């Protein structure tokens, strides 16, 4: 039954239209954080110590921990697996779980 847009009266047509402005709660607009595009340094002892502290080693955990994209995290994990630093434990098509090998 919708019909169409209601016809405005003459007084409504003559009034200037108000535009909605977004209200900033903090004052300045916040910028989005863009995930990094570089791999963390595999040879860095600090990176290895952080990996030892993780309960679960998955690409999504690595991406969140180092603020990198998921695809970069997957490459990082493949490189660690190639260097025999981690081992595939279980997983399916979407989720892969790894464990850190003793060094």
Tell me what the structure shows.
The chain is α+β, with helices and mostly antiparallel strands and 103 residues long. It has a domain at 34-100: Arc Repressor Mutant, subunit A (Orthogonal Bundle). Helix content is 34%, strand content 11%. The chain contains four helices and two strands. It has helices at residues 10-14, 45-53, 59-66, 70-82, and strands spanning 86-91, 96-100. Strands 1-2 form a two-stranded antiparallel sheet. A hairpin with a 4-residue loop joins strand 1 (86-91) and strand 2. Helix 3 packs across helix 4 (70-82). The longest helix has 13 residues, at 70-82. The N and C termini lie far apart (73 Å).
Give a concise summary.
With 103 residues, the protein is of the alpha+beta class. 34% of the residues lie in helices and 11% in strands. Strand 1 (86-91) and strand 2 form a beta hairpin.
List the defining traits of the structure above:
2 strands; 103 residues; Arc Repressor Mutant, subunit A; two-stranded antiparallel sheet; 34% helix; alpha+beta
